[in-house]
Amino acid sequence: MTIDPRPVARRPPYPVPRPPPFIPGEYRNRRPAGNLRAGAVYRGAFVNPINPEALLMKPNRLSGVLALALALAAPAPAVLAQTTPAPADATSANSLEPPVNWWLLDAGTDRVRGISAERAYRELLAGRPPKRQVVVAIIDSGIEIDHPDLKDVIWTNPRETAGNGRDDDGNGYVDDVHGWDFIGGRDGRDVTVDNYESVRLYRACRAQQPLTAECQGYKTSLDKDRAEAAETLELIRQYGQAFQQVTSILQMHLGSGDLTPAKAQAISTMRQDVMQARDLYLQLVGAGITKDVLDQELKSTQNKLQYGLNPEFDPRGIVGDNYADPNERGYGNGEVEGPDADHGTHVAGIVGAVRGNGIGVDGVATGVRIMVLRVVPDGDERDKDVANAIRYAADNGAQVINMSFGKAFSPQKDVVDAAVKYADSKGVLMVHAAGNGAANLDTEGNFPNKYYRTGGGAATNWIEVGASSFGAADSLAASFSNYSATKVDLFAPGVSIQSTIPNGGYTRHEGTSMAAPVVTGVAALVMAHYPELSATQVKEILLQSATRYADQSVVRPGAQQGERIPFGQLSATGGIVNVYEALRLAQQRAGGRN
Ligand SMILES: [Ca+2]
Ligand SMILES: [Ca+2]
Ligand SMILES: [Ca+2]
Ligand SMILES: [Ca+2]
C-alpha cells in the first residue's frame, strides 16, 4: 500500500475573530470562526492558530482562550490596556446558548434548524411503539453503561454468561457481555493514551539509516508538532497568569464573596484598571473560560508532549496482542467503560438516552440497544482495532455502527477496508463523522472512509456526516466541520449538543462526533419502525428526506475572511437530516402500511 507522507495540511493563523452581531430571534453560535483541526475522537473543534492538528481531544473552550490570547497579543498586565468592551450579553455563559434540545426541534414550528424529532414523536409516532429493537454499535472511547439515562438501553449479549471466564457463545471473545474493549489487556488494564499514527509510523521506520524520504517526512512533521505543542503550552501558561490577574483585581475590588459574572457586570467605578479587568473577565466568561478549563488544557498539552507526540512512548504492551499480526482476533477485555468514557458516553446519549423518563436528556431514537466497542484512546486509534470492532459489530447483531473518530494516516487501511466490506455485505449501516478540520475532504486524507484503497470501489452502506449549527442563517455549517460536495453526504446538528457524560452527568459538546450519532439515531429509529427496509434503503431515505438548504449562503468552514459559499457545495445533498421527513418517506417506501 502507499502511505501518503505529507503532513496534514497546515493553515496560516486566522484573523482575530469578532463576535457576530446578535440577531434578535435567532440563536447565536458564540464560537468564533477560525481554523480548526482535530483527529482521534472528534470531540469539539479546537481553534489553535499555532498547532492545528496537535490539539486533539480537547474541550472546545480553548478556542475562545486562544482566540482572545491572539486578540490581546500579550498577556497581562499589558493585556488590560487592550481590552474591548464585553458584548452586552456575555454576562452569563449560558445566555448565548440555544434551547438545550435545539437539535431535536423543528425549523418551521420552533425556528431553529434541528431535526424535527420532537415533532415526529408528537405527530407520527404517538401510540406507535417500535416494531423491533435495533442494535447500534458505538465504536468509541468507552461508555458508562450504568449511567441512569443509558443503563436501560445498553445491549446485552444474550448468549454470553458474565464473569465465568468462558466464551459461552463461541464468538471469540470471553465474557463479552455488553461489547468489547479492544485496547485493554487480559489482566484488566486499559490503554488510556496512545501516540498519533504519524508518530507510530516514524517509530517503525526510524531504525533504517539513512531515513527514507517518507520516514524523514514523518520526522519533520513530528519535530514541528512537538515545537508547536511546546509553544501552545507556553501560551496556555501565560494566559492562565492573565486570567489569574484579572480575577484577583476584581476580587480585591469586590472584597468578600465569590466573583460571579453578575457581580462583575454590576461593577461601575472610575478606576480604569478595574473596569478593564471587568471587561476582560466578562469576555472570558462569555467564551466559557474558567480556571478549570485552563488547567485542563495545560494538562492535555503536557500529555501530548509526553505521550501522543513522543515516539519513545508505546502503550501497546498493555494489550498484549501480537501487534504485527493485523488479522489477530480475541485480544482485549470485556470491561467496556475504560478510564475516560466522556466522549463515547456523550455519543451514546445522542443516539439513545432514554426518552421521557423524566431525567437528563432525550436521545434521538427509542427502540435501540447500544453495543459498546472501545477502540479510541486519547491519541489515534489503531487500524487493527477499528477493523476488529467493525467485524464484532457485524457478527454480533448490530444494524448500525457509529464511528465518531478519525485520523490523518491509515497504514493498515486494507485491514479496515476488508472489515468495512464485510459489514457492508451483511447490510450493516456505517455512519462516520467527517471530522473537525474545517477542511475540504476532496484534498485531505481522513480515515476510515468508504473508499477501498486496493481494487477501487466503495462501501454502499456508509454515510459521512458534517456538523451543522444553530444561529444566524450563514452559520448553518459549523465553523469546524469538514466538508466535501462528493465525500460528505449530509449534515446534522453538532454544536452545543447536550448529552450524557460519566458519573451520571450531562454536558454540551460540539463536533462532527456529535453530528454522526444524530444520523445514527435517525437511521436506527427508521429501522425500528420499518424492519422491512434494508440498510441501503434507509440510507437513501435519510439522504433524500434531508431538509435542503442547498442555496443558503453560509460561511465556509475555515474561511479566512468569512467567505460565503452555498451550503449545497459542502455536501452531496446540501441537506440536514430530518426525522419527521425520513419517517414519512420510510412509510411510503414501505408501501404505506402501518
Ligand atoms: Ca463470547
Ligand atoms: Ca462467559
Ligand atoms: Ca477495559
Ligand atoms: Ca432521559
Q: Order of helices and strands, N to C?
A: EHHEEHHHHHHEHEEHEEEEEHHEEEEH
Average of per-residue pLDDT values: 85
Give the helix level as a range of percent: 25-40%
Number of domains: 2
Taking pLDDT < 50 over at least 5 consecutive residues as the criterion, the unreliable ranges are 1-40, 42-95
The name of the CATH superfamily of the largest domain reads Peptidase S8/S53 domain
What is this entry, summarized?
The protein is α/β, with parallel strands linked by helices and 594 residues long. It has helices spanning 62-72, 117-123, 197-205, 213-254, 261-266, 272-286, 291-308, 342-352, 383-395, 413-425, 512-529, 535-545, 579-589; strands at 40-41, 134-140, 179-181, 368-374, 400-403, 405-406, 429-433, 462-468, 490-493, 497-501, 505-509, 547-548, 553-555, 564-566, 575-576.
Structure description:
- The protein is an alpha/beta fold.
- 31% of the residues lie in helices and 10% in strands.
- It contains 13 helices and 15 strands.
- The strands form 5 sheets. The protein has a 7-stranded parallel beta sheet, with helices on both faces. Strands 1-6 form a two-stranded antiparallel sheet. The chain has a two-stranded antiparallel sheet with strand order 10-11.
- A hairpin with a 3-residue loop joins strand 10 (497-501) and strand 11 (505-509).
- Helix 4 (213-254) crosses helix 6 (272-286), helix 8 (342-352) packs parallel to helix 11 and helix 11 (512-529) runs parallel beside helix 13.
- The protein is globular and about 75 Å long.
- The structure holds calcium ion (4 copies).
- One calcium ion binds at residues 160-161, 164, 166, 168, 174-175.
